[in-house]
């Protein structure tokens, strides 16, 4: 349900038409989360029905009117409340990898260990990419979103790090369990 | 640059023998930033010590720029080390009675150069690591991150062919660590060859290549260079 709040957040700064809204979304969080126009317009529809957003028509030469969206007072209250509330539910473990682990052949640990190894390599490569992005951000002094983007890159790094640590932990436990049997 | 050929290291402990490293063949190229990862006891520090001439292999060979680091006298190793290898440790290893500038200049002072001749370069290096204002401070007047910067400047004083770092941020918080990695990365961008041992994937990700060790032998060699995306 955060698309709703992302849109409210962007409109809280400036009234925008749909196209600009998508551009604003892409510029702030697009690196981590991509939305299509369909999702933006259907969310805007719902926000208008709930009275959180309203629109004005702007006439254009030789083209149909265009809608300029703005946030309402109720919209601002809702956004402020949402911004200050912590997230009740922690991240769900719905990763495809967990499902693979559950259905892995328990009598063939070599395959599980090989999968863990491959997964770790992938995570490391991903972290390397994020790190390079982060270093590049240091040189974008004029980019007003550099800090938030860096913080988002950081959360990606922390999550990947946690995953690697957990995978290493799995590796050690699986090996220890094997050692016990032999 | 650095080349290991079937290098191994055995330690004797009483009657027991520990094979800390086995059959390591590895080439580190000039300009590379190599991260070495692996669980505790997998031989990371032992490997770095062989590369830095702090220890000799019991099997195989180690070369630095074509010069053997194995089978030479302690004196020869000490000279090679002081002139061609920069070493950064987890616990900084600064001398408490010396100022930052004196600590940085120490390797050259040990080589017999007078401090007056060493000081300008020591201060320039301190400026490069962001400590222009701290040249006269003693280690107990510096934060952990600042001490590690001094240690990095000291490691660079002799223009080493390679900078070796063993868990350089093992004692620092995550933001301070990041600043140290960014410093290492910028040195690497200026051409400095770096080998860093770490068990922290966030640290390893600054490298352009990651080698993982398992039970004393390389398990994976992941090249992530600047070219791939
Ligand atoms: N001087 C020594 N004498 C005897 N055994 C040693 C010596 N140095 C290292 N070892 C042994 O060699 C193995 C590898 O040690 P090493 O210090 O290289 O591991 P490491 O990967 O650096 O571990 P950590 O992440 O804990 O620093 C260990 O089993 C260790 O006990
Ligand atoms: Mg070690």
What are the main properties of this structure?
heterodimer; A: 182 residues; mainly alpha; 3-stranded antiparallel sheet; 3 strands; elongated; B: 229 residues; Rossmann fold; 6-stranded mixed sheet; globular; binds adenosine-5'-triphosphate; binds magnesium ion
Describe the structure.
Chain A is mostly helical. Chain A folds into two domains: 82 residues, Winged helix-like DNA-binding domain superfamily/Winged helix DNA-binding domain (Arc Repressor Mutant, subunit A), CATH 1.10.10.10; 83 residues. Chain A is 67% helix and 10% strand. Chain A has seven helices and three strands; from the N terminus they run αβααββαααα. Chain A has a three-stranded antiparallel sheet. The mean pLDDT of chain A is 84. Chain B has 229 residues and is an alpha/beta fold. Chain B has one domain: P-loop containing nucleotide triphosphate hydrolases (Rossmann fold), CATH 3.40.50.300. Chain B contains seven helices and ten strands. In chain B, strands 6-7-8-3-9-10 form a six-stranded mixed sheet, with helices on both faces. In chain B, strands 2-1-4-5 form a four-stranded antiparallel sheet, with helices on one face. In chain B, helix 6 links the parallel strand 7 and strand 8. The radius of gyration of chain B is 17 Å and the shape is globular. The two termini of chain B are 26 Å apart. Classes of the chains: A mainly alpha (182), B alpha/beta (229). At the A-B interface, helix 6 and helix 7 of A face helix 7 and strand 10 of B. The complex binds adenosine-5'-triphosphate and magnesium ion (MG). Magnesium ion binds next to helix 1 of chain B.
**Percentage of β-strand residues of chain A:** 5-15%
Q: Give me the CATH fold name of chain B.
A: Rossmann fold
Q: Which whole number gives the mean pLDDT of chain B?
A: 91
Domain count of chain A: 2
Give me the CATH superfamily of chain B: P-loop containing nucleotide triphosphate hydrolases
Specify the helix fraction band of chain B.
25-40%
The strand count of chain A comes to 3
Assign the CATH architecture of chain B: 3-Layer(aba) Sandwich
Give the low-pLDDT segments of chain A.
none
Give Rg of chain A in angstroms. 23 Å
What is the terminal separation of chain B in angstroms? 26 Å
The main β sheet of chain B shows up as: 6 strands, mixed
- The whole-angstrom Rg of chain B is 17 Å
């Amino acid at each position: 349900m955060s698309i709703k709040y992302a849109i409210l957040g962007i409109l809280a700064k400036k009234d925008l038409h749909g196209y600009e809204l998508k551009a604003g979304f892409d510029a702030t969080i697009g690196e981590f989360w991509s939305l299509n126009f369909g999702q933006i317009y259907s969310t805007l529809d719902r926000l208008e029905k709930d009275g959180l957003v309203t629109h004005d028509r702007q006439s254009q030469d030789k083209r149909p009117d265009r809608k300029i969206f703005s946030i309402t007072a109720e919209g601002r209250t809702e956004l402020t409340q949402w911004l200050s509330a912590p997230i009740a539910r922690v991240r769900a473990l719905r990763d495809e990898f967990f499902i693979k682990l559950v259905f892995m052949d328990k009598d063939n640990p070599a395959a599980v260990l090989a999968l863990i190894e491959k997964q770790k390599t992938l995570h490391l490569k991903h972290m390397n990419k994020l790190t390079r992005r982060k270093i590049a951000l240091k040189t974008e002094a004029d980019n007003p979103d550099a800090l938030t983007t860096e913080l988002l890159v950081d959360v990606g790094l922390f999550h990947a790090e946690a995953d690697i640590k957990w995978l290493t932990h799995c590796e050690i436990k699986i090996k220890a369990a094997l050692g016990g049997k032999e | 640059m650095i080349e290991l050929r079937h290098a191994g290291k055995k330690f004797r402990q009483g009657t027991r023998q520990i094979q800390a490293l086995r059959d390591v063949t590895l080439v580190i190229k000039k300009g590379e930033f190599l991260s070495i990862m692996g669980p505790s006891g997998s031989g990371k520090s032992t490997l770095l010590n062989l590369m830095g001439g702090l220890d000799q292999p019991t099997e195989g060979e180690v070369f630095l720029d074509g010069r053997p680091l194995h089978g030479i006298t302690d004196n020869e190793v000490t000279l090679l080390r002081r002139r061609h290898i920069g070493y950064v440790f987890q616990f900084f290893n600064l001398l408490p009675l010396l100022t930052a500038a004196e600590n940085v200049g120490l390797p050259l002072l040990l080589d017999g150069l007078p401090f007056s001749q060493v000081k300008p370069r020591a201060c320039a290096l301190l400026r490069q690591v962001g400590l222009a204002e701290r040249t006269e401070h003693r280690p107990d007047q510096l934060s952990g991150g600042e001490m590690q910067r001094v240690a990095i400047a000291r490691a660079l004083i002799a223009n080493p062919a390679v900078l070796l770092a063993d868990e350089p941020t093992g004692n620092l918080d995550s933001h301070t660590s990041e600043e140290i990695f960014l410093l290492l990365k910028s040195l690497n961008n200026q051409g400095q060859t770096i080998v860093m041992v770490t068990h922290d994937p966030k640290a390893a990700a600054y490298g352009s290549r990651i080698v993982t060790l398992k039970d004393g032998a390389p398990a994976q060699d992941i090249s992530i260079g600047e070219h791939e995306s």
